[in-house]
Each structure stands twice: as structure tokens, then as C-alpha cells.
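Entry type: protein chain
Record version: 2
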Amino acid sequence: MTADRPGTPAAAPPVPPAGAPPVQPPGARSGSPPGAVPAPASPARGAPAAPPRRRGTEPMLLMYHSVGPAAGTADDPYRVTVSPGRLDRQLRWLRARGLRGAGIGELLRERAAGRGTGLVGLSFDDGYQDFLDAAVPVLHRHGCTATVFVLPGRLGGRNDWDPLGPRKPLLTAEGVLAVAGAGMEIGCHGLLHRDLTTADGPALEEETRHARTLLAQITGTPPDGFCYPYGAVDARAADAVRRAGYRWACAIDPGPVTGPYALPRVHVGERDTAWRLHLKRLLHPLRRPPLPHPLPDGGAR
């Protein structure tokens, strides 16, 4: 699992000679120090102006995995687990600030319609059984929804791709239906949790198009969203996801391929207390590129 990585501080701007007009600081980007001020970009002649973004208004997409009792212990070496109590406190922190957790698809639709300023995207990777047992009740308690990314080729299995464990049961087909019936969005995490950047052509088809077909057979609706296993994405993988019919896809820190098919997210874990959430929210505009606004055709196929 990949956690957030601190950026590299940018070089300080040169000091102008006496009497010279002040030098504008460079545009803030991923890795810029908190004090950097983005320089307004000059739109191309004839191009429509992008809607202005105020500092702190860029929505966050939060990335969770499992919700259970092993959080923060030696039994959770990849830090994929958040305890139900910690999740409850994190959602309470959001609600106290006028924010509401929502599935990624809902956030993108509201954003495309010019709304959604109070929404924070919630996503849970891997499709663990404990999402239904432990996370859904907490989400309902706070009036939140979320997107859970499941693996249709491993339904009822375990997370065998994590060599150090701990072994956790995954949702069954019945569990996926129960999650959807609880008002949560079902997304696809691939077929078997394989790295798409190293997959050959047939494997890419299996992990994207075939996995989407299998989920549609379970839920009756093809999933709109995809999530890259391990957060690994390149231009080839993103194009395969687009061609498979998905409307959007989540990564972690996709860098130059950031866009509708590589949306950046922020990892949230057991260690994220109120002050850490505050810091992540404050630094988010500097550490993650802005989301596309809006997605092309509202994220439609």
C-alpha cells in the first residue's frame, strides 16, 4: 500500500534589486511549501476561462481499506486497517466542519453540476467483508455514503496479494448486493488485484473489461468507477480503463497522468487524528493536483 509522501520544497525565488518590481512567486504545485502562492495562468487566446478555485475548496478524495480491530498494530504491517472507533471520530470531524462523506461518483456528478462544495469523497479499496459489517453502520450513523472497490475474481476469498497479511475475508456476491442495497456505490478494483502497468494485453482486458462485465452480472448495473490495484497507473493502463467503458478511475498520486482516469486520493489510516486530518486538508491543494472540473460530459461515457 502506498501512503502519502511529503513533497520536496521548491527553491526560493530570487530577491529583486532595489527599486525593481517584486518578482511573482512560481505557481504552487505538488511539493510546494505551504507559503507558496499560485501564479494565475494566462488562458490561451479564445479559450474559455476556468472557474476560479479558492484555497481550501478543492475537494479531497479519501482512501480507506479495511475497518477492523487490528488497526495500528504489528498485525497490520501495511496499515490498511482503521478501527470502527477511529472511523467514527474521523467522520464526526468532517461533519463538525460542515462536510459530508460521499461516494466518488456522487461527488463527481455534483461537482459537474456546479454543486458539491461540502462533499468529501470516501473510498474503500479491496472490498473487504468488514466494510459491510463494520464500516456501513458508521457511515449510516453520520449520514455518509462511500464507494467500495471490489474484486469480482476474488469474491468470498482473501487478500492473498499481501504477502505479510493479515488475511482478511473479502465480500461475497451476496455481500456486494447488500452493500449496494445499503446505498453505497460499487466500483471495480480489477479482477484479481494485479498491477496494470505490468500486465500484458489479455490481462489488461481481464482486469478492466471482463471484471466490469462480472460486476454488472451481480448488481445489474455496470460500475462507473475503477480503482488501480496498488495505485499503479500509467497512460496505457488509463487508456485500457477508458476503453473498457468506465467513466472515471481512482489512483493515489498519479503525477503526469492525473485526469478523469487517474484521480488523486489521500490515504487515511488509524493514525489520522483530528489534527492530522486538519493538516492533510490544509496541505491538500499543495500536495495533489486539482481534480478535472468538470469531468468531460459530467463523467459520461
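Comment: Residues 201-219 form the longest helix (19 residues).
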